[in-house]
Amino acid sequence: MKRFARFWWDFVVGDDWRVAVGVGLAIVAVAVLHHRHVAAWWVLPAAVLLLLYVSLRRAARS
Amino acid sequence: MSTSAVFLVLSTFLASAVEVVETLTIVLAIGVTRGWRATLIGVGAATIALAAVVAALGPALTVVPIERLRLVVGALLLVFGLQWLRKAILRASGFKALHDEEEAFAKGLEEARAAGREERAGLDWYAFTIAFKSTLLEGLEVAFIVLTFGASQGSIPLAAVGAGAAVVIMVGIGAAVRAPLARVPENSIKFAVGVMLTTFGIFWATEGAGAAWPGGDASLLGVLAFVTLSSAALVALLKRERVRIAVA
User: Fold this and answer.
1) Partner B contacted by A56 (CB < 8 A)
2) In this predicted complex, what is the ipTM?
3) Which of A13, B99, B114, B136 allows an S-S link to B46, with CB 3.0 to 4.6 Å?
4) Which residues from chain B sit within 8 angstroms of residue A24, using beta carbons?
5) Where is average pLDDT lowest: B17-21, B65-69, B130-134, B227-231?
6) pLDDT tens across B85-133, in order?
7) B206, A53: Cβ pair inside 8 Å?
8) What integer pLDDT is reported at residue B1 of this predicted model?
9) With an 8 Å Cβ cutoff, are B90 and A59 in contact?
């Protein structure tokens, strides 16, 4: 069971779990902004750029 | 055919093509050194297992309401796509080695020759398990993309057509040349697939979370352009960083 869970974690999330957490938080932000009638279509593109930049910088320096 | 349908077929075709190229390299190395019977039985068993996964999950996904499906699928695709894109950017900027099929083939040959011989169920067990595992693992990525793209777009068969076409073409070429498909621009295709997965992930997760895109479906092209340009800028930035590290 543990190996099965580990396989799916590696399969979907991969090397940097922070990216997955960031994506989750950004999606929550879209939902919250939409609920408050604020345009939220720009949130995920901006979050993706930021998450990629931070993750790649970390990888390049390690 | 709508823009999103074209992207759907193109994405599943390209994703499937790179996975088939990688699987072919391993299967060829095993088949050449250990014989074809157990190798092909391993490939066949994995293909049946993959078909069963798609057949079981495909109809189940179609009964989930589209908004909820797009939220879950969008989030999964975005995380999965960013993983592809991150690796592709690291490869393109020189921080990660490029995938080389000839090198992978040579390594596969060496490992297959060195492995001991064990017979189970009348099969060379090494050849069977390696062929089965490599086909299943690479195929799972394709099945994941076909199911998520197809279900969110409301057409799993269309997604399967893209993936199936890639399998037929790549396996056909592989069978004809009987050598790893080293000339396929695999690293560039992986970059393109990472961009497409991320684009669809952004698009569907935003819609699934309730927000609307200005311009509706047409904004998919805008998201694609944004992800492509951002990725190219990050490659350039990392290349500069690499030079700076080398000089320091």
Assistant:
1) yes
2) 0.93
3) B136
4) 75
5) B65-69
6) 999 999 999 998 887 888 888 898 899 888 888 888 888 999 999 999 9
7) no
8) 66
9) yes
**Please, are residues B85 and B5 in contact by the beta-carbon 8 Å criterion?**
no
Q: How far is B227 from chain A (nearest CA, A)?
A: 8
Which residues of chain B does A13 touch, with a Cβ-Cβ cutoff of 8 Å? 79, 83
- pLDDT at position A62: 81
Query: How many Å apart are CA A11 and CA A14, to the nearest integer?
Result: 6
- The rounded distance, in Å, linking the Cα atoms of A23 and B76 is 9
Residue of B nearest to A32 (CA): B209
Record the pTM: 0.85
Q: A41–B213: do the CB atoms touch at under 8 Å?
A: yes
- Among the listed residues B194, B169, B209, B168, the one whose alpha carbon sits nearest the alpha carbon of residue B15: B194
- The CA distance from A22 to the nearest CA of chain B, in Å, is 9
Higher pLDDT among residues B6 and B206, named by residue: B206
Place of tokens 């992930």: B201
- B151 pLDDT tier (thresholds 50, 70, 90): confident
Q: How far apart are CA B157 and CA B26, in angstroms?
A: 28
pLDDT tens for each residue of B29-73 = 999 899 999 999 999 999 999 989 888 888 888 788 877 888 998
Distance from CA of A14 to the nearest CA of B (A): 6
Burial class (CB in 10 A: 0-12, 13-18, 19+), B68: exposed
